[in-house]
Amino acid sequence: MKKEMAIYIHQLKNWPHLHWDELAFNSLLSEVCHLQGKLLGKIELLGFQLKEEANLETLIHDVIQTSEIEGEILNPELVRSSIATRLGLNYSGVAHSDRNVNGIVELMLDATQNNNKKVSEERLFGWHAALFPTGRSGMYKIEVGKWRSGAMQVVSGGMGNEKIHYEAPNAALLATEMEQFINWYNEEQNLEPLLKAAIAHLWFITIHPFDDGNGRIARAITDRQLSKADGVNQRFYSMSTEINKQKKRYYTLLERTQKGNLDITEWIIWFLECLKNSILSSETIVGKVVKKHRFWVKYASLISNERQHLMLSKLMDHFEGNLNTSKWAKMTKTSTDTALRDINDLVNKGILIKAISGGRSTHYILNENS
Asked: Which residues face 156 on adjacent strands?
């Protein structure tokens, strides 16, 4: 194994006393705070029901993306169902559930909805246990609901050609390291809240206290702090979505920062840029929610049955592939004749339109002008 004799920041004499140059990011921080306030002001105008919908959509993105960063692809339908159930929202979708999906959903909801509840060792253990309900990560048995007892390295490369990117603190130090972090996280009141989110993310991921799941829990800790910074227990922008878009940069900068000195200015600038982009991208989610609302206001009285309501809802959320008669029949558990009648009814009402391609590939799409 190619072992680099690196000195990591947690090995430095003054760790964990991180420092930064505020002048380097003051204008960026002000811009992000302005965008944050502007978004929350716009959200307030939506009203209760649409705020709930925007929160649901954002949480779905957050859960899917934080898992995808780690290479785990979740079923959007299961995620939507799990979150809607826990938020007490009506959702006529899949009835079955998945323990892994429910676990990450429970973690994210506890982190953001209970943002005034202090973080503790026991709470972090609960989050970790929720992530790994079987006590395994993939095929491998791991230590669940407690600090790791072994060494932790971040490694890439094939067998015999591995490269060590990072080595976390020795397991014997974890109790002390985490006590310091938890005390700071709960008690630090003087830092600007968004700056605290950036520091908390880096500090936790540097300690790397668990056998697995450290990235997801670091992002949950970040979301909890961002939720506190917003002053609400709902989410309207997804930091994990933006991190996933910049995943290569994320890991590169983490490695450079963890091998650097205790000046984390570059990390904070990247974090704030990432946060800025995630807030700007929230326009897409809010726009989708408003569009759905207007659609149902206009057409709710024209929907003839529950099958049509179900399929139109799916078309506006996460529909894979093209909608045709056989897919409608399969998804609504009805005959192709009934499916065709349902579809033709919606076409006649101007809600669906037949796509340009015909013949055996005939399929239908929502009327964008509806």
From this structure: 163
The Cα 88–Cα 352 span in angstroms is 30
DSSP 146: S
- C-alpha span between 306 and 114 (Å, rounded): 35
The DSSP output letter for 6 is P
Tens of pLDDT, residues 106-163: 999 999 999 999 999 999 999 999 999 999 998 999 999 999 999 999 988 877 788 8
Tell me the CATH number of domain 9-291, given options 3.65.10.10, 2.60.120.280, 1.10.3290.10, 1.10.275.10.
Answer: 1.10.3290.10
Burial class (CB in 10 A: 0-12, 13-18, 19+), 222: buried
Residue with tokens 């979505």: 241
Q: What CATH number does domain 305-366 carry, 3.40.50.300, 2.70.70.10, 1.10.10.10, 1.10.1040.10? A: 1.10.10.10
Q: Say how far apart CA 353 and CA 364 lie, in whole Å.
A: 6
Q: What is the pLDDT of residues 92-112, one digit of tens each?
A: 555 567 888 999 999 999 999
Strands (E) across the chain are located at 136-137, 140-141, 153-156, 163-167, 352-354, 364-366
Q: Which residue has the tokens 């965008």?
A: 35
Torsion of CA 302, 306, 309, 310, to 10 degrees: -170
CA 246/CA 23 separation, integer angstroms = 25
Range list of β-strands (E), 67-220: 136-137, 140-141, 153-156, 163-167
Domain map (residue ranges) of the chain: 9-291, 305-366
Long-range CB contacts for residues 129-132, cutoff 8 Å, separation at least 24 = 130/102, 130/103, 130/104, 130/106, 131/100, 131/103, 131/104, 131/107, 131/212, 131/213, 131/216, 131/217, 132/103, 132/212, 132/213
